[in-house]
Write a structure and sequence with these properties.
Length: 277
């Protein structure tokens, strides 16, 4: 049976039963010292264990608990058993895995060190838990785990953002193209309505379309106009085109026949009909 002895506020052991009896005979232990062994539910006086009963009744059977230093808390009779971490009398050494976890945590924004920080941190905490206080570094391991998770999350968010930004940018550009096409259609309709009221002649400029044919004059601000055209001219003539091009070097082009398209480059001057002699 392996025994742990609590004496002077310090946990000692483990000792075999024979070694504990020898130390008791030498005066190192007292029968009133608290002891614990595997299978016991609580700490009990050494005198109550088999093989340690006194030869004669003790004059003072009450249990005296030695004073406990302020920084330590010794278990009393009835307290939950088990070795007290850090109170074995052995030197506590820092875990190398805990140090590695902390160092990798500082570079967790590179993802791979972050993963290493998480793995090393969990292993270090597991080893410290099983060492009964002989291996330290729990705080460093926890810090490494936290930084590892934070770094990995930041990297993943950056990757997602990098994938989504082009999608959002493309959607925004498509929306601008759609808006420009709609504006071109409105201007084209207004020009044909003006021509219907003026014997087939298109307007001399876009400003005369407002407000009768084009209620919102702001629509025409982003477009250029080829004046002096007539409905009898070539139906493929360009009457209006947008000043700015999109990301594909295309601009909105409004033809005399009503077609509104996205075309590359700058439209050529229209072909006008010959004046009758």
């Amino acid at each position: 049976m392996q025994l742990y002895i609590m004496r002077g506020g310090e946990q000692l052991g483990p000792f075999s039963s024979e070694e504990a009896r020898q130390r008791l005979a030498n005066g190192e232990f007292q029968l009133t010292d608290l002891a614990w062994a595997e299978g016991l539910a609580v700490w009990v006086p050494l005198s109550t264990l088999p093989g340690f009963a006194p030869v004669r009744p003790l004059e003072h059977p009450s249990i005296s608990v030695p004073p406990v230093p302020p920084e330590r808390v010794s278990p009393a009779v009835g307290q939950s058993p088990g070795p007290v971490p850090g109170a074995t009398g052995r030197a506590v050494k820092s875990s190398g895995l805990a140090i590695a976890s902390l160092v990798c945590g500082f570079f967790s924004f590179l993802l791979l060190p972050g993963i290493a920080a998480i793995i090393c941190g969990y292993k270090a905490r597991s080893m410290a838990k099983k060492s009964f206080g002989t291996i330290g570094g729990n705080g460093m391991a926890l810090a490494g785990i936290i930084m590892g998770y934070a770094g990995a999350a930041a990297v993943l968010l950056g990757v997602v953002a990098a994938l989504l930004l082009p999608v959002f940018a493309g959607a925004k550009a498509n929306a601008r193209d759609e808006q420009a096409l709609n504006s071109g259609k409105l201007i084209g309709i207004a020009c044909r309505m003006y021509a219907f009221d003026h014997d087939g002649a298109f307007p001399p400029n876009l400003q005369v379309l407002s407000p009768k044919y084009l209620p919102n004059p702001q629509i025409a601000l982003g477009f250029d106009y080829f004046p002096g055209q007539h409905e009898d001219d070539s139906r493929e003539n360009v009457i209006v085109f947008s000043k700015l091009m999109n990301r594909k070097n295309q601009r909105v082009v409004v033809h005399a026949d009503g077609w509104v398209l996205l075309e590359t480059g700058t439209p050529s001057a229209p072909v006008l009909r010959e004046s009758p002699h």
